[in-house]
Specification:
Number of strands: 27
Shape: globular
Helix content: 40-55%
Largest sheet: 7 strands, mixed
Number of helices: 37
Structural class: alpha/beta
Distance between the termini: 96 Å
Strand content: 5-15%
Length: 1054
């Protein structure tokens, strides 16, 4: 039966008032057509070209009555019998159509289909009453439209909301044309000078793309100042207002902005012949002039043939950016999610009843990209129900919610299927009932469970259940490596309550805690009090409350690892599809970019297969990895005003689910999945309140990796290329983690540098069918970054071996001169490493404005720089004779590196909180800056003790740097108690230097420091207040595991 709806029908030119919203009836679908309910439709100049021109003007493709619109977004209502790329309920974006049969469609970009004009501009009737439709295959200026299946891009798997679909509607034409021309057609790069004429939607999309391609200059031309201002904000390096300029003046200005030679790439969106001719003149030899704008029938371009031939320039046209829409539109969506394609700055929304205003501002240039939104109206549901036999959408919820049918016909095997599913449910319920009876009957209920599931529907169920809060899947369909009897055996237990076990922990010379010992020793030497001893067990019960955080503990806020089949069922809950895909994207653009040991394309293919199965079939270890990825992504998500505590609490849910799935299997089996699971676990733990557990997990990780042979290139040669590369990258990432943990905890490395004999990471093998994951360029960046990171950490490993005696805790036999020579040799290795960095990873000084500009490469450069500076800090001990000039030179080079680290933090955070800083996640920034502050403090003590003439200057500069560090950290996370304590402690250190010099006693610090100065021996230097945070980040911040007895022998001067 026909579908009744409404549409914006053009019965003549818009300027003559001949456009109106009218009720329409759509014909039946053909086999290759799709009925789409529109959410929004962008308006493009092509709509005005074909809808504001008189029929007798001689412009091809102009006729009336018709429905225009070719930037639609919406949901599929019904499909023809031959349609395979979408199904009812799918979210879709609409683009151009094509024949699919001509030689161009088969071998080149379908946007140049030889039948393009007839298919897209002429269309064909789909509305009764002779109203033309299928404009660009879609005619999306209608509430419902019959569209060609070739113009439909399925985005159902991308987790887009209805609001997202409104915003992304223009991707189907204008924005893909502009960006695609830069990327697919011109293939612009860092050596190009790009001129774009016309700062409309197409032109501004080209500007954004050229900026993202890091072109040397991006030159925008327009007659409207507001558009040129917007172009500057989007990446244009130069803008030219052409309204009062002669063509030769325009040429001169373009050449002035491009080394005097002219553009290498010129893109015209205006189709104004004189301006196009000027762009040809302003393009350098061997350059490209690409015609994108659609000219009128009588528009012609005159070229001097000999000049054009000699110059080697190219002038050619491009349609739709040579885009293959099924691939390019999802890529643009990913750029938008990454913050690299700010569509929201281009779009203005209009209610569908305000269409006239939208068309007016489009024609006048007031709006860049008007988008008409089809809002529901009172009584609309009743009217929609006239679409007999079609599934109806309710609100914005995903999927098809109800069907209006006159009768219900069930297939003959439907009842038997229900019976089988019911038997399976009964079996699972009986199994769980038996387990609960045997395992929980003797246990005392607890007030608060350590498990916090997301909202979902009840288990078990054979099918995955979707809700607005998430998805719940049947645990029985997860591929597990254990048998049912093994799972049941693990549920046996005793109702015993265990108390916390506490023991002193060892922190060697390379740790910040070891450094604090040296600092306190220096203070002790200057003040003439007893040298503090190392960590000891707490004495007495009266101070246990304050001392408890200073000792390592088996107690963890992460909770015990649930391993029963019941917990496996509970752990089978998943968040909503959109949330899952957002977190996967966040992981692969953050932690997955820094340590790319997971093959993104393979991982996403597994996810897509999991989703395609209705979330009904997947490996258990893979599901565990997925939940750890969710945990990492949640823990570092500081957007939308979330505090660090909120992020951690959210991540904790996913961490517990992951441990329910794989916590036990990690102890009894070895596979690449298990090793990668343990690696993800260790990486997650580093940024949690129980960072000390990362050490324990890492031990198991290294042993499992060695058992799998990841340390040898000879093992696994028969495997797939990408599996071999995953093994290689996993081992390299484990080595990096091993070196970091060894340095921060001051404990021996599990993987000595001499054992790193495997080759450096190589590019992934990219099969021709690969479509998921980051672009090859981004994947190569991640590969290169991992390689240079491994090389840097190898130098760090040599430093641990040579300078700290491998952190084994024995006295070194080297004399002082040999120690200095060792430090100098390692410093030379670091300098050589920095000098041989690829240009794109060059070190980023604190004075660079790029520090404040958030981008993928700036972030990687900043992280590389901070890592490098932290290695330059070198040996921590203070036992070298300060009277020797060589030792002082080494010490002050360390101080210079620390000051540069603080300078970088001040540059990024000096102006206030930053949501997505180039310095990475908050806890590593805190670690680097806090460590640098301790180095500065050591430098100040060193200067005082050295009797140098400039000692007072060094002390004053050090104090200023400590204040700068505290100010920067204050903006890092002003809701984080640990950050606040570190800020307070650093400020106290800056004032503590006024207490006593090597020659006299200064005035006590101001009243602001009274909270510290009035502390008795136990609380010396404010350490206990810092320790009492119960943060677990002590190994990184030099405090929490440091026993209070260390300070017992130190007191402030009388």
């Amino acid at each position: 039966m026909a579908c009744k709806s409404e549409a914006l029908v053009a019965r003549g030119p818009f300027s003559e008032g001949k456009w109106a919203l009218e009720p329409v009836t759509l014909r039946e679908l053909r086999d290759d057509e799709v009925l789409v309910e529109m959410v929004a439709s962008g308006i493009c100049h092509t709509d005005l070209h074909c809808g504001n021109t008189a029929v007798d003007a001689g412009v091809p493709g102009v006729y009336y009555p018709r429905v225009l619109g070719h930037e639609g977004s919406g949901y599929v209502v019904k499909t023809g019998s031959a349609v395979e790329n979408v199904r009812a309920g799918d979210a879709v974006l609409l683009s151009f159509s094509y024949c699919g049969n001509c030689y161009v469609c088969k071998s080149g970009p379908p946007s140049h289909c030889i039948n393009f004009f007839d298919i897209n501009f002429m269309g064909e009737p789909v509305f009764e009453g002779g109203i033309g439709g299928r404009f660009f295959g879609q005619s999306s200026l209608a509430r419902h439209s019959v569209v060609s299946d070739k113009c439909v891009v399925n985005v159902a798997g991308l987790g887009l909301t209805k609001d997202d679909l409104k915003l992304l509607a223009p991707l189907g034409c204008g924005l893909q044309t502009g960006s695609g021309t830069v990327i697919n057609v011109a293939k612009a790069g860092p050596d190009d000078y790009v001129t774009v004429a016309g700062m409309g939607g197409v032109g501004l999309a080209a500007v954004i793309a050229a900026k993202n391609r890091k072109c040397k200059a991006v030159i925008g031309l327009d007659r409207v100042d507001s558009r040129l201002t917007l172009a500057k904000s989007l990446g244009a390096t130069h803008v030219i207002n052409t309204s009062n300029l002669a063509m030769d003046e325009i040429v001169a200005k373009i050449k002035e902005a491009s080394e005097g030679l002219g553009s290498t790439i010129s893109i015209d969106t205006t189709a104004f012949p004189a301006l196009v001719s000027a762009q040809v003149d302003a393009t350098r030899y061997m350059g490209k002039v690409i015609q994108v704008g659609t000219g009128m029938p009588n528009a012609n371009l005159a070229l001097h043939m000999q000049t054009f031939m000699v110059s080697g320039k190219q002038y050619f046209g491009a349609v739709q950016g040579h885009s293959k829409t099924s691939e390019y539109i999802p890529q643009m969506i990913q750029w938008w999610r990454d913050g690299d394609f700010p569509i929201e700055k281009l779009v203005t929304f209009f209610d569908h009843q305000d269409y006239a205003r939208a068309l007016e501002v489009m024609g006048s240039g007031e709006a860049i990209k008007p988008v008409i939104v089809w809002k529901r109206q009172m009584g609309e549901r009743g009217r929609e129900q006239e679409i007999s036999g079609l599934p109806q959408r309710q609100g914005s919820s995903a999927g098809v919610m109800s069907s209006f049918v006159s009768a219900c016909h069930l297939r003959k095997d439907y009842v038997s299927d229900l019976e089988q599913r019911l038997k399976k449910v009964e079996h699972l319920l009986q199994r769980h009932d038996d387990l609960l009876t045997g395992h929980l009957s003797a246990c005392t209920p607890v007030e608060q469970s350590s498990y916090h599931p997301l909202h979902g529907v009840s288990l078990p169920s054979r099918e995955a259940h979707h809700s607005n809060d998430g998805i719940e899947i049947d645990a029985s369909v997860i591929d597990s490596e254990e048998s049912e009897s093994e799972a049941e055996a693990r549920t046996d237990g005793l109702a015993i309550t265990f108390v916390d076990e506490r023991a002193a922990a060892y922190f060697g010379e390379s740790s910040n805690i070891g450094f604090v010992r040296y600092l306190l020793g220096a203070v002790s030497a200057i003040w003439g009090v007893k040298q503090p001893e190392g960590p000891q067990l707490s004495k007495g019960d009266n101070t246990e409350g304050k001392r408890r955080a200073m000792l390592s503990s088996e107690h963890s806020p992460l909770g015990a690892l649930p391993t029963t089949p019941q917990s496996l069922a509970t752990s089978s809950r998943l968040p909503a599809v959109s949330d899952m895909e957002t977190m996967i994207n966040r992981y692969f653009n953050t932690m997955g970019l820094l340590f790319p040991f997971l093959h993104e394309s393979t991982f996403r293919q597994t996810y897509e297969a999991f989703k395609a199965s209705g979330f009904n079939k997947v490996r258990q270890t893979w599901l565990g990895e997925l939940n750890l990825i969710f945990a990492i992504a949640s823990n570092i998500n500081r957007k939308q005003g979330k505090t660090s505590k909120q992020c951690f609490q959210e991540s904790l849910v996913y961490y517990r689910r992951a441990m329910s799935l794989c916590g036990a299997s990690c102890l009894r089996s070895v596979s690449l999945d298990i090793v990668q699971f343990l690696l993800l676990q260790a990486l997650y733990l580093q940024g949690t309140p129980q960072a000390g557990e990362a050490w324990s997990v890492h031990g198991l990780l290294v042993r499992s990796a060695v058992a799998l042979g990841l340390h040898s290139d000879k093992v696994g040669r028969q495997l797939d290329e990408n599996v071999q590369e995953m093994r290689n990258r996993t081992w390299h990432t484990i080595y990096c983690l091993d070196t970091v943990l060894s340095a921060t905890f001051g404990r021996p490395c599990a993987i000595p540098p001499a054992h790193m004999t495997v080759r450096l990471p190589q590019p992934w093998h990219v099969p021709e069918t690969a479509q998921l994951g980051n672009t090859p360029e981004v994947a190569q960046i991640a590969t290169d970054f991992l390689s240079i990171s491994v090389q840097l950490y190898q130098i760090m490993g040599l430093s641990i071996e040579a300078q700290y005696n491998g952190n084994i805790g024995t006295e070194q036999n080297e004399d002082e001169v040999s120690m200095l020579q060792t430090a100098s040799t390692l410093r030379q290795k670091l300098r050589r490493w920095a000098e041989t960095l690829p240009p794109e990873f060059s070190l980023l000084p604190s004075s660079s404005p790029d520090l404040k500009h958030s981008s993928r490469m700036n972030k990687l450069r900043a992280i590389t720089t901070v890592r490098y500076l932290s290695k330059i800090n070198g040996r921590h001990d203070a036992e070298l004779p300060y009277t020797t000039q060589l030792a002082m030179a080494e010490a002050f080079e360390c101080l210079s590196s620390a000051e540069e680290t603080i300078g970088m933090a001040a540059s990024v955070f000096g102006g206030g909180p930053v949501e997505d800083s180039n310095l990475g996640v908050w806890f590593f920034t805190l670690y680097y800056v806090f460590t640098a502050a301790l180095m500065v403090c050591g430098g100040m003590l060193c200067a005082r003790h050295s009797h140098r003439l400039n000692a007072q200057t060094v002390v004053a500069e050090g104090r200023a740097n400590l204040v700068k560090a505290a100010d920067a950290l204050e903006n890092l996370d002003n809701s984080n108690p640990l950050v606040k304590r570190c800020v307070t402690y650093i400020r106290y250190l800056s004032q503590l230097q006024d207490y006593r010099s090597d020659s006299d006693l200064s005035e006590p610090p101001s009243d602001d420091a009274n909270a510290f100065t009035q502390m008795e021996g136990l609380d010396f230097m404010g350490m206990v207040d810092l320790l009492d945070d119960h943060s677990g980040l002590g190994p990184y911040l030099a405090a929490e595991l440091f026993d209070s007895s260390t300070f017992d022998s130190l007191a402030l001067p009388p």
